[in-house]
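FIELD: query
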Amino acid sequence: MPSHRRGTFAFRLDVDSVVCLEQGIPNMLRLGDRHGVRFTFFVNMGRSFSWRHTTASVLRRRRRAEGGKPGGTDSQEPYKIPVTRKLGRGGTLRTVLLNPRLGRRYRSALDLLHREGHELGLHGGSSHPAWQYRLDELGDDGLERLFRPAFEEFRDRYGHPRGFASPGFRYNRAVLDLLDADGFEYASDMVGEVPFRPERREGTSRHAHFQVPVNVIGDRQVPVIEQGLARGHGDDRIVRDALDRIRARPFALMYGHPYVEGVHTRPLAAVLSEVAGDYDVVTVREYLQRWKETATP
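FIELD: result
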């Protein structure tokens, strides 16, 4: 049952790189134990890199830069940390040259999260870049081929995933229908302040699953802590910014990645220490249940 504290806070992490699993997750486990909290990890079971999709993404960014559109090189202020900096030289080489299936290569790390009581959800399908950059080109059959192997591998090892998060917050109507068909309780892809059930395309009914929006977030859907680090802000400023956003709402959901918050641990540790006095820190599934208990029918 909810306590008499002021609010409910959850922190979700998208696990989609070798550095997330090698460095970030061990640190997140220690952080969770130190503060007596459990996090939600949305796990990419497949591959995190594709030459094809990376090349296409670089070309798109270059065209935006040449056209002076947002995200080009004319941007006045950085909004996120470059991937190569987050991965480091060694992580970049392992990603590009080995490109392992994360759910298999790092099974022991995921098993430990599961045993320690952290919530595990599914993050896309068998290829993170294919989902993020090609989703609308896949069609129903292509989406099924991308999704099914990852779903079954996760289910067979950790049980039916209750939560889902799309790479890059990329979803479409086919994804929403798939989540209903496969019995997901919730996803966390849409914009909003509080959980809701999304409307179907006909507009006359709603999907069976809930959307649980991230509402503590920076510009362009970049995590607050990562954005502060990218802009060279000190820890005090980053923590203050995060706390201002959290305390502006009774239900606060923040997100990040283990290869950022699990490597640069001080800001998140400070946030957890500060919110402990007036917020319950819970998993995303628990967050949804708390919201349901307080929502007006």
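FIELD: remark
The chain has a mean pLDDT of 92.
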